[in-house]
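For reference, the entry.
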Amino acid sequence: MRGYVDCHCHISAGDFDKDIEEVVEASRQAGLLALLAVAEHAEEFDKIIALSRRFPGFVFPCLGVHPVQEISRGQHRSAAVQDLHAALPLIEKYRDQLVAIGEVGLDFTPRYVSSEADKESQRQVLIRQSQVAKELDLPLNVHSRSAGRPTIHLLKEQGVEKVLLHAFDGKPSVAMEGVKAGYLFSIPPSVIRSEQKLVKQLPLESICLETDSPALGPEKQVRNEPRNIGISAEYISRVKGVSLETVMEVTTQNALRLFPKLASAIRR
């Protein structure tokens, strides 16, 4: 199957409201087979489901509660168990349409976490969503900024086996613990902005592609789009010394292995 899979993007973001049709068409033209649309909070769940119905067999929904929640523009707090009250019933409602639970995880960036209590709050939210993922037999689409080791350790403690760690910023040695656990890592186009040891060390069989659109694009402060997925693939091809075709084939097979619901829908 020839084409890319964007394993992590925020296609429901307001940045795309005015030109979503064009953005989706441009991504198809760039060789994308599928976009995994992740959520950050319950308020956008219905919008993501609506997009998956508007672009069937192309936009696939992942629902979850992000470790950092926006209070108001520029103001954030750690996720709390209360944030799950609205989210869990909707996850149950849409369970058959979901390809993953996400975006979930831990974020210990100092500006978001002011105490050990904040960290513990995030852990409890992740533990509960890990349980839900296991109950529904769905993979987790995971955020782990400034918390690579604690995230991997918690997921292993919880017995979670199917994991995508997106835009991992931890040490390669920590990432290798994830590789040993069978976890996959997705690489965004922003990788070209900084020399990354991670791609060098990860086996290609543990790598997927993502854009994290509208964030993590090749240029800072410029809206990223799924069509930029090839930038990630080209970087991996160069660092690994393998053909672009090989990167496309292996990363897509990795994605279809982790997200089996995707495979059956794309092959229809």
Observations:
- The chain has a mean pLDDT of 96.
- DSSP finds ten helices and ten strands in the chain.
- The first strand starts at residue 4 and ends at 9.
- Strands lie at 4-9, 32-37, 59-63, 68-72, 75-78, 100-105, 140-143, 163-166, 184-187, 207-209.
